[in-house]
């Protein structure tokens, strides 16, 4: 029988840090949540509502916005960027509008980008840059879900350096940044996606010391027989990509539905919010999209 990742315990560790750090900040950081109403998905609504509850419990301020048109969305992001009360912004994707989501991500002020999805922040991740300033006091922000996976692995002492990692997701929020983070830590990483042939997908799963799957479809599932004996498995999907009961026969450690990685992601969003609030002090006037700080 395999062990299980205690995501609740990992989340609580970061929430404790947030609770200790928050009283040192003035004013209290305010998070703006932006949900595009015309195409809001059930998972995004649920995620937004959980974030708002977490903000209240942890002592942050939060404002809820639900623009009803693309023009209103673009205008709102611009207003939030310039609003001195707002410390961080999270937009719930996909928007699937006339502007590609990747371009919309770049409309958010990189210093208020709590998800780390702006090209400037992703560029820092590529370079494995950890601090925005020479004094090493202002931390770079990285995508929270990817960071949650890495921190959960580390907290459970799963070896990353030298590991073969298969990621079944190539999105901007999960697969792409996670691959960079794990490579920075010495892993060999391969990413699979909807264009990956089944035979290649099976081979990648069979080779994986660490398997991360985050396919947002109820129709996708991984054959538990493919899982390498002793592998570490993190199912980050909303619907579930793996039959946990069957996978336990092969995995050394695995995530389970009632103790999911999402709670670590939400905790790290507030860690990122604190990073953003600190970075805004002294750096805001220096930020230029086309050049480094």
CATH architecture of the largest domain: 3-Layer(aba) Sandwich
Q: Which of globular, elongated, flat, extended, rod-shaped describes the shape?
A: globular
Question: CATH top level of the largest domain?
Answer: Alpha Beta
Name given to the CATH homologous superfamily of the largest domain: Leucine Dehydrogenase, chain A, domain 1
Distance between the termini: 50 Å
Run of helices and strands: EHEHEHEHHHEHEHEEHEH
What percentage of amino acids are in beta strands? 5-15%
Mean pLDDT: 93
> How many H/I helices?
10
For this structure, the CATH topology of the largest domain is Rossmann fold
Secondary structure tally: strands: 9
Tell me the major beta sheet: 6 strands, parallel
> Structural class of the helix and strand makeup?
alpha/beta
Radius of gyration: 19 Å
Q: Please mark out the parts with pLDDT under 50 across 5 or more consecutive residues, or reply none.
A: 287-293
- For the largest beta sheet, what order do the strands appear in spatially? 1-9-8-7-5-6
Count of all domains: 2
Q: Give the % helix.
A: 25-40%
